[in-house]
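Appendix B, Record 12. Input sequence as logged:
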Amino acid sequence: MNLIIVADRGGLKAFKTSKERDEKSIELLEQFVIEEMLGDFSDKMSDVAGNFPIDGTAGKEHAASEKMTIKMEHEKRAVKALIKDIGAVLKKHQPTVWDFAASSDINGAILDHLEASFKGHLRHNLKKDLMKTHQSELVSHFEHA
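Logged structural output:
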């Protein structure tokens, strides 16, 4: 069995690919959504806790002292969840080879923390976000890799 796994911070999709009579077919096997990454980050952090007045604005403007580190921690947790979910998919389906795509900002972090046995079967790695690509077009991205 061959797999294609595409991921972004919000989740992943795993597809089974096969070749039958000169035609390649693709079928969605599993999809994971990371619930905490849904929605806009600013909506989740909308309270004023941690905001401090900016000098010279008479207290009318505030700066968030920790918002960036909170956002980075939030994204770090999402990547950890992706690593766990990808590992579970690969363990469950045990593909002969698999292809992977995720944007360059999370691609390396995911692959660096996967088990070596999984990485040994990785055929193509694309630093692209293909989560919204129609499944019928996915195979062609990896054929030209």
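The CA atoms of residues 93 and 141 lie 22 Å apart.
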